[in-house]
Design brief:
globular; 3-stranded antiparallel β-sheet; binds 4'-deoxy-4'-aminopyridoxal-5'-phosphate
Length: 356
């Protein structure tokens, strides 16, 4: 039976990517060595890094003002690395609080400068994206989380402001085209739409760097990694390499426009069933629904568990919701095939019929 991986991350990767990666673990580019044992300074690994960077630039149509970095420490390191590099103590940054990951970013930023939480949806357990936010124009930057992996909400457009944007795109990176020129920095842990865990993508505008007066440790200074093309220290070679293969897969499958179209069609299958089915209820308000993480609850916990067991038996895995929302979560990233989502929707319908 074919299995479908609905995990929130690490998450499903394209089968072709996994097959190529597996072949490279055994014999990398006919070198007779595994990719796991070759030097990061070897010609082939340097070429893979260059290719990964070039693909990010090509997919997002980046101008020369932007640099692409492959770093370590996960998106969680960016929570403090960003204010450390962008925010002086006496300056204020704006943050939009749309969930657990935003909250962590806010907590760390407070250690480096002033933080103005310009909007929050916490009072409704983060089931919506704040709108019509009043954003002071003198903020150093405005940070937000474009897709809330845990709560299943997603910004449908960029925040309306002239303030420079910084965004955690961990769970919707490469899922649709975006206007990068509005951002000073974009970051994402790889382990959803881009590759395996262990590498973090950072896209940064060069001219926005170098404005803080504090000492920034060399390893945490973005300029170090720009100067050394993400090879200042030993990079996570395998995670970067698999990310490169996934980026190539995105390009070969029509790029970000095509991803967006596919993702819209895929999410519609599930949201249509959620709206129809009397046993399940979506967490997010309709207009802010995420195309990546579909969060929903059943009429009782007992019923949810019974349904989760059924899903597992049918090869649909990773559907248990995050503990802070409960219920179920279907993560339907770029690489998850529409057939898997259709199978889930069909099972929801069959389950409802059985219970009637
Ligand atoms: N931000 C978002 C939106 C996430 O979904 C996650 C992880 N699920 C993180 C940040 C943290 O990422 P990491 O585990 O790479 O530190």
């Amino acid at each position: 039976m074919k299995k479908y991986n609905f995990s929130a991350g690490p998450a499903v990767l394209p089968r072709e990517v996994i097959e190529k990666a597996a072949a490279s673990v055994l014999n990398y580019n006919n070198s007779g060595f595994s990719i796991l044992e070759v030097s990061h300074r070897s010609k082939d690994v340097v070429a893979a890094m260059d290719q990964a960077i070039a693909l990010v630039k090509e997919l997002y149509g980046l101008s020369d003002e932007y640099e692409v970095l492959f770093l370590q420490g996960g998106a969680s390191t960016q929570f403090f690395q960003i204010p450390m590099n962008f925010l002086n103590e006496e300056e204020t940054a704006g943050y939009i609080n749309t969930g657990a990951w935003s909250k962590k970013a806010i907590k760390d930023a407070k250690a480096y400068g002033k933080v103005n939480v310009v909007a929050s949806s916490e009072e409704q357990n983060f089931n919506y994206i704040p709108k019509n936010i009043s954003i002071p124009s003198d903020l150093k930057y405005l940070h937000y989380t474009s897709n809330n992996t845990i709560f299943g909400t997603q910004f449908q457009s960029l925040p309306e402001t002239d303030v420079r944007l910084i965004c955690d795109m961990s769970s919707d990176i490469f899922s649709k085209p975006i206007d990068v020129s509005r951002f000073d920095l974009i970051y994402a842990g790889a382990q959803k739409n881009m590759g395996p865990a262990g590498v973090t993508l950072v896209i940064v505008k060069k001219s926005a760097l170098g404005t803080v007066s504090r000492y920034v440790p060399v390893m945490l200074d973005y300029r170090t990694h720009i100067e050394n093309v993400s090879m200042y220290n030993t990079p996570p070679v395998f995670a970067m390499y698999v990310s490169m293969l996934t980026l190539q897969w995105i390009k070969d499958n029509g790029g970000l426009e095509a991803m967006a179209k596919r993702n819209e069609a895929k999410a519609k299958i599930l949201y249509d069933e959620l709206d129809r089915n009397s046993l399940f209820k979506g967490h997010s308000v309709a207009e802010d629904r995420s195309l990546m993480n579909v969060t929903f609850t059943g009429v009782s916990e007992e019923m949810e568990n019974e349904f989760l067991d059924r899903c597992k038996k049918e090869g649909l895995d990773g559907l248990k919701g995050h503990r802070s929302v409960g219920g179920l979560r279907a993560s339907i990233y770029n690489a998850l095939e529409a057939e898997g989502i259709q199978k889930l929707a069909d099972l929801m319908r069959a389950f409802e019929e059985e219970k009637a």
